[in-house]
Amino acid sequence: MTYQTQSRLSRLSPLLLVALILSGCQSAAFDDVAAFGDSAKTLEDDSAVAFYKNDELITTGKLQFKEKNYGKSYAIYKRAVAVFPQDPAAWLGFAASADMIGRFDTSDRAYQQLSKMIGNSPVYYNNIGYSHLLRGDLPRARQYFLKAYELDPANETTARNLELMKNSVKYAQR
Asked: What is the Cα 112 distance to its own chain's centre?
């Protein structure tokens, strides 16, 4: 071995030793944090699962939606709708997730399906009204919220939606 090769190896070996030591380290403090701000409980990959318990996809979709991971909840609810096409909860989650990512064409199709399932209910009218509120179509949103109010005047969600719409009219869009 020449002197130059030996010199290079002696400089590299401490770096290799440090790299090997660090590659084996794990910190327990970071176990509950995931990339992109997701909590660790939202990262389970079930894309290869062929069988789903009745509420597994809905529960996972709700968790993702609650955590504001709307793209993930959209993908999960899309799968839920394919697996359980007669489940209104799957369609509601799919429509709401599509609304939150701006896929109004998709949410419109989901609301068409929902109209056949739960069409004359406050839940349906509140959700489709909120969809139109997100689009900036305040007159149409108000129309749906008022239908929900007529069906159930004591519904807290309807009251909050009407208040939200009223506040949307008061303040300029930025």
From this structure: 21
* C-alpha span between 147 and 122 (Å, rounded): 7
- Domain residue spans of the chain: 41-170
- Rounded distance between C-alpha atoms, residue 163 and residue 171, angstroms: 13
Indicate whether 61 pLDDT > 90: yes
Tokens of 106: 């998709």
- pTM (predicted TM-score): 0.69
Q: Taking a C-beta distance cutoff of 8 angstroms, is the pair 80, 58 a contact? A: yes
CA distance 134 to 129: 9
Find the range with the poorest average confidence among 3-12, 81-90, 92-101, 117-126: 3-12
Q: For residue 97, what are the CA distances in angstroms to 75, 104, 108?
A: 9, 10, 12
CATH class of 41-170: mainly alpha
φ and ψ at 33, to 5 degrees?
-115, 140
pLDDT surpassing 70 at residue 114:
yes
Length of the chain: 174
Q: Assess whether pLDDT exceeds 80 at residue 166.
A: yes
Distance CA 67, CA 86 (A): 26
